[in-house]
Amino acid sequence: MFENEPVREPQRKRDATRARIRDAAIDSFRRRGYEATTLRLVAAECDLAVGSAYYHFPSKQHLVQELFLDAVQHQHDDATAQFAGADDLIQRIRIAFTTGLGSLEPYAAHAGEFLGAMTAPSSPVNPLSAESGPAREVAIDVFRVAVGGARQSLPEDVAEGLPEALWTAYLLLALFWVSDASPGRERTTALLDRGLRLAAMLLPLVRLPLLRAPIREALALVAAVRS
Q1: Domain residues for 96?
Q2: Pairwise CA distance, residues 98 & 161, whole Å
Q3: pLDDT, tens digit, 9 for 90 and up, residues 54-104
Q4: Each residue of 160-186: pLDDT tens digit?
Q5: CATH assignment at residue 52
Q6: Distance (Å, whole) CA 8 – CA 166
Q7: In the chain, what is the greatest distance between 2 CA atoms, to the nearest angstrom?
C-alpha cells in the first residue's frame, strides 16, 4: 500500500526458498546434466519437501529456464565489461559470440542432453519458444549493444535487424560447439574466425543501394523464423 512499506517476512522467505531451489538446480545441471537432475533430487538437496519445490517450479523445464537466464546474464555481464575497451564492430561482435560460448562451458560435459531437450518437438526449453522469451531477449540485447556501441554506423534498418540475425548465427555456432571434440574447441574458434572475416568484408557494403533490398529481405527472413 505504501511505497516504503517493508517486504513482509513470508514473501522474503518464499523468495529465499525459490533462490535456494534455483541455485541447487543450476549446480546439479552443471554436475549431473539434464537427465539426472530432477525436482525430487533438487528438493532433497535443499532439505525441502518435494511439494515445496513444485510450488516454486512446476516442472524441470522451469528450472532449465532459470539455467538459461543465468547463462545469458553471465554472457551479458562479461560482454558489457569487455565492450568498454572495444569500439570496432567486428571486435564487439566477436565478444558477443565468445562470451556466449563461455557461458555455456560449465555445461559442456552434458551439452548433448540439453540439446536433445531443446530440439524436441514443442519443447518449452527450445530457444525459439515463448517460455524462453526472457532469456532470449537478454541474449539478443547483447548483440544489440555490440552493434549499437560500435564506431562504425550502419543504416537504421540494418542496425535494427542485425542483432537478431547475429543471435541466430550464434545459435548455429553453439550447435556446432556441442559436437566439437577438437582440443580447446579450436574448430569452433576457426569457424567463428571465418564468419567474422566474411562479415568484415560484407558489412561495409550494406550502404550500396543495389544490396540494401536483399539485405533487408534477409534480415526480415531471420526475424520470421522466430515469429
Answers
A1: 60-226
A2: 21
A3: 999 998 999 999 999 999 999 999 999 999 989 999 999 999 999 999 999
A4: 999 999 999 999 999 999 999 999 999
A5: 1.10.10.60
A6: 43
A7: 64
